[in-house]
Amino acid sequence: MKFGKRLKKQIDDTIPEWKDKFLSYKNLKKLVRFISAAHPSTKAEAQFVELLNSEIEKFNSFFIEQEEEFIIRQRELQDRIEKLGERFEPSDAEYAAEMAQTRKDIVNFHGEMVLLINYSNVNYTGLAKILKKYDKRTGRLLRLPFIEIVLKQPFFTTELISKLVKKCETMMDPIFSLASAVEDQAETKEMDSAAIAEPSIFKNTVAALVTMQELRKGSSTYGHFSLPPLNLPEFDFLQSPSLPSPIPIQ
Amino acid sequence: MNSSLTLANFLPVQKLNMNHLQNTQISGLMSSPLPGITTPVIPGNCYSNMQNSESTFTQREARANSTIPQVIPMCNSGSLAATSLFSSGFYSSGYSPQINWPGESVQGVLGYDLDNINSGKIQDIMKHGSDAVLNSDVAGLMDGSWRQILDGMAVTDSQGKVAYSVSEEATNTSDQNQQLSLCHVSKSNSNNNINEICCAASPSSSSNAAIPARPPRMRWTQELHERFVEAVNKLGGSEKATPKGVLKLMNVDGLNIYHVKSHLQKYRTARFRPELSPEEERKSARLEDLQSLDPEKANDINEALRAQMEVQKKLHEQLEHQRKLQLQMEEQCKYLQMIVEKQQQSIDQLKLNKCTNIKLPSSEKLLTSENGCDEINQVDASEEMSRQIGQKHKTSESDNSICGAFSPMKRARGD
Q: Per its UniProt record, what NCBIfam families does this chain match (chain B) (predicted)?
């Protein structure tokens, strides 16, 4: 239930449009429980698989859609940044404002992309857990082959997004270094902190990190094949105890 | 409770297609679990939802004959049965002639006389909510609790994205599109050459022309988008450019006008309202209010942004790491499973050889690769397994000795 709770928290904190795109973990869990342990019928299994497949379809659709948008937005941002220098004089008031806005946009854009990767990961984890429960319940061997397929699904192949994220980071350097140069003349109105760090993005990011930390803390089923605990000592503000990790994270 | 159903009951109920199905591979499937059913080549797309070498006797192929998902009978042959259950998870590009998941056909499905639950309906439920389930016998057959659970499940996003459509282009281009890569890099290709294959579609069984493959969803890449932008610019900008023109100019096989159309739409939106998602609208509004000079505040803001970046970067890093670990884990599980299967084969072989002194381990130590991967007794299991494997090697040399064997039986651990 730990995962379930964490998942719920993440969904609560997530970007509103994303809320219904996550795995229906709780419901799937219930479903597994209903499947008879003694006589797992093939029909039941088929239905179960059908459900899983439709969940996967959901993920894939959403993911690919978002990916496409990110590709477009990234390029637009890039153009915008390049043109920023052309449009205004650095001393221009508007320039600073534009700059501030752009900075914010980039950071949030970066955040959204990372959250998409997180989305992928969270759903994968949930699926793996559900499958494990199913196997445990019915004594069948559904998990392994099914997971193999999941691994190849679009929503799990996040290489491109990762690439975009890295690209975004490089795009940011000039923007932020310029920032310090013109800080004196920065013309920015006071924005509440809520507006600065886009709330749902930031919140969701934090929730995601916390979740990862919790999940890898060492549960009752921790063993050789569990992911090693996650140490984030520099993020004390996340307020999660960091535990000594037997397997250091590289 | 569900009445017990036989395999026969599980046949697709679409009377329309019963005959056809029975004449096709489907019936063949009944007899042999994993026939060489290969997936239709995915035109212009870059991934196969299913590992092609595994069975994908796919609902897709059944669907090919109707736009209604059907149930595929399963073949039970131990663990292979699991593989055989997978539908392709195929979905169409949402950009095709917007044949939305047709309301009539859903009705049509429901109108059939059903003796049994068509699990295709479950998918309908997922898509349309419980309202789709009008047919009372379905409701009656379904375990009440299942119904509730399914009602609770999120309706699949059906903004026409899960449309089933027939695209002639798709069927015809099957083989030619081996040439194409419209997708971004899969592991096999390290270069992003647009015109090269990255299709994972392997045994390109030329989909038999009768099967209108639902065109798989198109996955854009940076390079492709670049080409798109060039084309648009040549045509005078996003407002002036038409999908048709862009498509032509781009000159990419496998790309169809619907892909371009929807992409163009997204592009226009992105340009005219840069970086605007609903919550960001209010942010951009504030830009207009900017007036005061406040270097301190500017600092604060930058600091906040930096902090946000740190957290985001960290999350990204950890996600990458986690992903690697997950992939590794699965590799290992696969490996263990393989070992288990080999063991089983050897055991079977030995049994055939009438090894007289076969002793099976006591029931407490039942092992499978799943157990092996099971976090609970992982360490023990792998030790046990290697011990037994070692033992096996020794004993196989002497015929009369105890054939150390471990039986990969899995005990169900239900409640």
A: myb_SHAQKYF
Q: ipTM surpassing 0.85, yes or no?
A: no
List the single residue in A with minimal CA-CA distance to B337: A144
| CB B110 within 8 Å of CB B134 | yes
Q: Do A250 and B321 touch (CB under 8 A)?
A: yes
Residue A197 CB partners (closer than 8 Å, separation 6+): A107, B304, B305, B307, B308
Across the interface, which of B87, B220, B305 has its CB nearest the CB of A104?
B305
Calculate the dihedral angle through the C-alpha atoms of B307, B308, B313, B316, rounding to the nearest 10 degrees.
150
Contact by Cβ (8 Å): A161, A118:
no
Contact list in B for residue A42 (CB cut-off 8 A) is 7, 10, 74, 76, 81
Q: Between A40, A68, A77, which is nearest B263 by CB?
A: A68
Nearest in space to A22 (alpha carbons), one of A41, A3, A8, A35: A8
Please name which of B39, B24, B122 lies closest in space to residue B88, comparing C-alpha atoms. Answer: B39
- Tens-place pLDDT, residues A2-12: 889 999 988 98
Cα separation, A156 vs A153, in Å, equals 5
Identity of the amino acid at B214: R
Q: How far is B11 from chain A (nearest CA, A)?
A: 10
Helix (H, G, I), strand (E, B) or coil at B185: coil
